[in-house]
């Protein structure tokens, strides 16, 4: 049993490899096509033809595309993503400092939207036609139509300008607080480790509005899928049998219906995560959040190709890894799946 | 809720797609509403520039940042331009971008999907890997990358939006073609002397059209959101062009000082458009495939 499962996992990881290679190729091609000559940037403003040519050969930009790709691959293998023009740091360290900000926001918003969408979907499915069901339907249709950047702006207007409860939408922490020592890069965790609860509440306050903005965006597909999956599970034979056998409603719902409904919900969660990574860019711009999304936008403006490449690659790899985790979660939720794969 | 709609004069029932459509529309006032909203969008897109009272680009410093009034229904922006005129005029550009992008991905996706589904083999395998790779990117991020690489123009927004949507169409067509490749009617058509291409294009492919229509409608909403999102972060459409995403971006700077109308109305127009296409997509799905109703 165990070797079987390990084999399944191994096969699934192997399947991800060509996709990862494709992702690397696409991000390489995309950034080589960026307008602007990086050699000119690196050589500086006072450079003449000769020094530009020197920088160009130092960067390997005078070689053929396949040769450049090979250099890129070997650099990548040693964890070198190149040098950012705008920040002057290595892209890897830039991403490492900014990624936690984005992840903290994304994860909190996903937890928030799951904790609302899944119970809502279940309630709507168990009471079709009730007020909860209608609420669910309205939320679902309205939710998918919301442009995240617009929701963010509206929330800022209502909660910052009109009501004055939210802090100013400028980054992760108001300037009156001191940044917690970097351990994980997640301010909430770092502040808790340092025992600095003032900073903790401060960063939580900054998080609330952007997290709600993202959560509103992800709520709709999750609630919709939960409702649909629960409806089909509840109308199935095994649920009827379980009810006929006299199991409690709670047991039928949680063990029989919900566990089976979980698979499509987890699939949707993966899709939603992809949307969220994209939407992050917009939300980070609205709230001046110093994550990798705003990093990429700044990099795009100045054609900072190494930074853009690093960002696109990091996002895609994150997403591939997530899909891998989701597929592996399937085998945990539903053991039958593991043996179907060839 | 549906009673009044059903009391309308009983028509002679004719079996046909039109009669079915009328039947579905009658029992589903929401879809009817969606069609009405769609009509509003179309009118604004076609006749927008001649409907509005002000030039969307004309600035007037003496009337800057005025709240909504009878003169300026949606107020004026920081340069004194009339927000209402700009929102209405922008409809054409936003719709044009999304329709062009969806049409492109519809055509390219259909061709690639039909090839992959009909002939299979290595072509199918290669195309599938390609689509996997595209889908491995968070789509908005890929669109950002493409626009950045190709250059900051409206056409490139269209291409980027088309590329990220191609896999959805191609996969759909591939599945629909694949299951009918060896079906009786396809084999019969081939036996009677039709070429592969003819069988594929005229006999098999049309079967994929109904689900494609649903996809198109839902996709139009995404495409608008995508294009507006790109403009919002400063890619593609450039100021002073009137476009909803840019207008929200410009208005966002004034939100913290309370001038809400700059960002609110273009954002609302954007929402209205996306909402319309989503409702329309759901309605079309009910007509095309009643089993998928949720």
UniProtKB/TrEMBL annotation, chain A:
TM ranges: 9-30, 105-126, 138-163, 207-223, 261-283, 305-326
Cited CDD domains: TM_PBP2
Family statement drawn from the similarity comment of this UniProt entry: Belongs to the binding-protein-dependent transport system permease family.
Source organism of the structure: Roseibium polysiphoniae
Main localization (coarse): membrane
Membrane topology: Multi-pass membrane protein
Record keywords, A-Z: Cell membrane, Membrane, Transmembrane, Transmembrane helix, Transport
Classification of source organism: Bacteria, Pseudomonadati, Pseudomonadota, Alphaproteobacteria, Hyphomicrobiales
Any single Pfam family the record assigns to this protein: BPD_transp_1_N
Subcellular location: Cell membrane
Domain of life: Bacteria
InterPro entries: BPD_transp_1_N (IPR045621), MetI-like (IPR000515), MetI-like_sf (IPR035906)
Domain called ABC transmembrane type-1: residue spans: 99-330
Name recorded for this polypeptide: ABC transporter permease
UniProtKB/TrEMBL annotation, chain B:
Bilayer-crossing regions: 30-54, 95-118, 130-151, 220-240, 260-281
Principal place of residence: membrane
Gene3D superfamilies referenced in this protein's UniProt entry, alphabetically: MetI-like (1.10.3720.10)
Subcellular location: Cell membrane
Domain of life: Bacteria
InterPro entries found in the cross-reference section: BP-dependent_transpt_permease, MetI-like, MetI-like_sf, OppC_N
Entry keywords, A to Z: Cell membrane, Membrane, Peptide transport, Protein transport, Transmembrane, Transmembrane helix, Transport
Residue ranges annotated for the ABC transmembrane type-1 domain, each copy included: 91-281
Family: Belongs to the binding-protein-dependent transport system permease family.
Descriptive protein name: ABC transporter permease
Organism: Roseibium polysiphoniae
Highest classification ranks of the organism: Bacteria, Pseudomonadati, Pseudomonadota, Alphaproteobacteria, Hyphomicrobiales
């Amino acid at each position: 049993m165990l070797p079987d499962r390990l084999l399944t996992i191994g096969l699934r990881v192997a399947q991800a490899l060509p996709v990862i290679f494709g992702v690397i190729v696409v991000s390489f091609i995309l950034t080589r096509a960026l307008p602007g000559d990086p050699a000119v940037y690196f050589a500086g403003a006072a450079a003449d033809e000769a020094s530009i040519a020197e920088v160009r050969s130092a960067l390997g930009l005078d070689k053929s595309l396949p040769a450049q790709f090979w250099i890129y691959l070997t650099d990548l293998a040693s964890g070198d993503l190149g040098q950012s023009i705008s920040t002057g740091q290595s892209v890897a360290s830039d991403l490492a400092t900014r990624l936690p900000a984005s992840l903290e926001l994304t994860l909190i918003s996903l937890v928030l939207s799951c904790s609302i969408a899944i119970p809502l979907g279940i309630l709507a499915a168990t009471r079709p036609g009730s007020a909860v069901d209608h609420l669910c339907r309205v939320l679902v249709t309205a939710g998918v139509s919301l442009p995240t950047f617009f929701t963010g702006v509206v929330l800022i207007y209502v909660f910052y300008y009109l009501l004055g409860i939210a802090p100013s939408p400028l980054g992760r922490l108001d300037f009156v607080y001191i940044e917690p020592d970097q351990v994980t890069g997640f301010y909430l965790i770092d502040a808790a480790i340092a025992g600095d609860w003032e900073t903790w509440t401060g960063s939580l306050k900054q998080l609330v509005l952007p997290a709600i903005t993202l959560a509103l965006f992800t709520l709709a597909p999750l609630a919709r899928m939960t409702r649909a999956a629960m409806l089909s599970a509840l109308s199935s034979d095994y649920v009827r049998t379980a009810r006929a056998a006299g199991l409690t409603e709670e047991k039928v719902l949680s063990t029989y219906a919900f566990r089976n409904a979980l698979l499509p919900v987890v699939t949707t969660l993966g899709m939603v995560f992809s949307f969220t990574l994209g939407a992050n860019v917009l939300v980070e711009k609205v709230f001046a959040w110093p994550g990798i999304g705003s990093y990429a936008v700044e990099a795009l403006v100045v054609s900072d190709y190494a930074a853009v490449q690093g960002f696109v690659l990091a996002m895609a790899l994150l997403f591939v890894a997530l899909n891998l985790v989701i597929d592996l979660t399937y085998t945990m939720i539903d053991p039958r799946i593991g043996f179907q794969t060839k | 809720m549906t009673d009044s709609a059903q009391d309308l004069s009983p028509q002679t029932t004719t079996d046909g797609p039109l009669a079915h459509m009328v039947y579905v529309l009658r029992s589903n006032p929401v879809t009817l509403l969606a069609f009405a909203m769609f009509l509003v969008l179309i009118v604004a897109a076609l006749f927008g520039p001649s409907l509005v009272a002000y030039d969307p680009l004309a600035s007037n410093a003496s009337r800057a940042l005025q709240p909504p009034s009878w003169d300026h229904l949606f107020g004026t922006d920081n340069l004194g331009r009339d927000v209402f005129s700009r929102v209405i005029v922008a409809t054409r550009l936003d719709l044009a971008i999304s329709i062009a992008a969806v049409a492109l991905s519809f055509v390219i996706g259909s061709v690639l999907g039909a090839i992959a589904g009909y002939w299979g083999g290595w072509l199918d395998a290669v195309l599938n890997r390609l689509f996997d790779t595209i889908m491995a990117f968070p789509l908005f991020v890929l669109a950002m990358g493409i626009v950045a690489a190709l250059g900051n123009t409206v056409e490139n927004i269209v291409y980027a939006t088309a590329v990220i949507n191609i896999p959805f169409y191609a996969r759909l067509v591939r599945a629909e073609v694949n299951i009918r490749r060896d079906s009786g009617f396809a084999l019969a058509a081939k036996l009677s002397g039709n070429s592969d291409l003819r069988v594929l294009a005229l006999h098999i492919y049309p079967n994929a059209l109904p689900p494609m229509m649903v996809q198109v409608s839902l996709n139009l909403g995404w495409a608008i959101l995508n294009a507006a999102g790109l403009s919002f972060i400063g890619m593609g459409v450039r100021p002073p062009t009137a476009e909803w995403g840019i207008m929200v971006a410009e208005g966002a700077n004034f939100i913290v000082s309370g001038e809400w109308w700059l960002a609110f109305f273009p954002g609302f127009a954007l929402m209205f458009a996306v909402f319309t296409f989503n409702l329309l997509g759901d309605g079309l799905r009910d007509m095309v495939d009643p089993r998928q109703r949720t």
